[in-house]
Amino acid sequence: MAIFSTTFPVRYYETDQMGVVHHSNYIRYFEIARDEMMVKLGFPIEKCEKELGILVPIVSVDCHFRYPARMGDVLTASAEVNKAPLAKMVIRQKVTNQDGVLCAEGSVTLGFLDKESFRPVRCPELVTDLFEKYLNNH
User: Fold this and answer.
1) Domains observed in the chain
2) Residue among 78, 64, 69, 89 nearest 35 (CA)
3) Residues annotated catalytic, as ranges
4) Fewest CB atoms within 10 A around its CB: which of 14, 66, 82, 138?
């Protein structure tokens, strides 16, 4: 299992009049953790698109809200991968507050498309190898 996480404060514009984080932001928080995961693996999404010609679209998102995050909180978003991607990649995601309280959890499924044809393809071998290497070392 590989877990990647990043920490950031709740920003004013992410909240409603009650100072509670709007539910739509949790999907963005999930993305922050996924982006951080790819950066830490050494192959950011934009590099995948530019150098390999592969797009990585979201196929599905599942999100369960557990506890409200509020203005002033410092959140940690995490992305967990249990196996190297092949035709798709399933990532378990969580957002916790500074006290370790679970605010939201879910999963995101990513696919892989050829940038020119928009046809589904397998995950590039380079990316699969990066995940396998990381999973084997952690």
Assistant:
1) 2-137 (3.10.129.10)
2) 78
3) 16
4) 138
Residues 107 and 79: their CA atoms lie apart, in Å, by 9
pLDDT of residue 90: 95
| Reported confidence tier of residue 47, pLDDT bands at 50, 70, 90 | confident
**In this structure, are residues 63 and 24 in contact, taking their beta carbons and an 8 Å threshold?**
no
The H or E element spanning position 2 is strand 2-9
Predicted structure pTM score: 0.91
Distances (CA, A) of 88 to 35, 57, 120: 16, 10, 10
Give residue 48's pLDDT band: very low, low, confident or very high (50, 70, 90).
Answer: confident
SS3 of 12, please?
helix
